[in-house]
Amino acid sequence: MTICVVDIGGTYIRLALSIDGRDFTRDPQKIKTEQFACIEEALSYFMLQEQWLPSTISHILIAKSGRNYWTLSESSVKEIFQNAKLIMVNDFAANAMGLLHVIPSDLLYLGGMKKQPDLHFSSAVIGSGTGLGLAYITPDKTIQRTHGGHMLPALISNEQRELFDDLQHLKTNKTAPIYEDALSGNGLLSIYKILSNRHHLDIEYHDTHHLLAEGRNNPLVQQSLKFYHEILGQFAHQVLAFGYSYGALYLTGGITDRIISHDLFDNDIFFKSLYQNNVTAVLNDVKETPVFWVKDEFISLKGLLHEVVTK
């Protein structure tokens, strides 16, 4: 059995091979999607780099983000992997599946009264990247997909309401305001651009990676991150309360990874916002919930690999 696992995001595609269903043959590859016109090109490039014959692949599992606009069909994949069984999985569900088997060294504890996941409750997974993902893991290890990133935001201050009014003006499709408008890579960049325009200042950073890597001392970047962490905390509060998911909160995704790796994650603002002055029973449950950063950026590939083994 030779397995190919693929996670197609809006910005990156992650790929790996396994011959035993447990470990990868080599370190997974992470490639920018903009290098390829279609999924077929990306898959062919990966197999060439790995020096592996596509005809030897017995299973291919693909998770695809809605923020990626490649057309994906079984027939097009079969043209490359003629002998493979194709399994399609929701992109963020793959992240949650990986957390079913996560090891302690892949997690960084951020806060909460409890230090370990409480398996009596459901857990929640929030992923900020090109988009905003949310999934729940039930005590019986069922993965519950959601469209949580597309919920209308509960805004507390006039500043937040004004910010979302401005974010709405930037949207070309004019759909309703959603949490993803702020809690994603494009969202964070848009907040910075809005603040720059308000202060009649030139926009110094034109992509989120540059902003996070170089903007630490820029007051507008600092203010953008303050908004980001406030709104993330409010979103997380709702996620835990609505899902009764006090087992654990896992933060993942490319933007989360970069914010933490650049030492820009603001624990004080996030947890102050997370611990909203709700009724005592809710506030106590939220405070007890342990919060972790998922350090393994290939957790979705591990989730996909496990899906083969269990089927």
Summarize the structure.
With 311 residues, the chain is an alpha/beta fold.
Commentary on this structure:
By secondary structure, the chain is α/β, with parallel strands linked by helices. It has 2 domains: 3-90 and 299-310, Nucleotidyltransferase, domain 5, CATH 3.30.420; 103-294, Hexokinase, domain 1 (3-Layer(aba) Sandwich). 40% of the residues lie in helices and 18% in strands. It has 11 helices and 11 strands. A 6-stranded mixed β-sheet has the order 6-11-10-7-8-9, sandwiched between helices. Helix 7 (219-243) packs parallel to helix 9 (267-274). The relative contact order is 0.17. The mean pLDDT is 93.
> Sheet bearing the most strands, described?
6 strands, mixed
**How many structural domains can be distinguished in the coordinates?**
2
Which topology of the largest domain does CATH recognise?
Hexokinase, domain 1
- Quaternary status of these chains? single chain
Uncertain segments are none
Total helical segments? 11
- Kindly state the number of beta strands: 11
Share in β-strands = 15-25%
Strand order of the largest sheet: 6-11-10-7-8-9
Rg from C-alpha positions?
20 Å
How do the SSEs run, as a string of H and E? EEEHEHEHEEEEHHHHEHHHEH
Helix content: 25-40%
CATH arch. level architecture of the largest domain: 3-Layer(aba) Sandwich
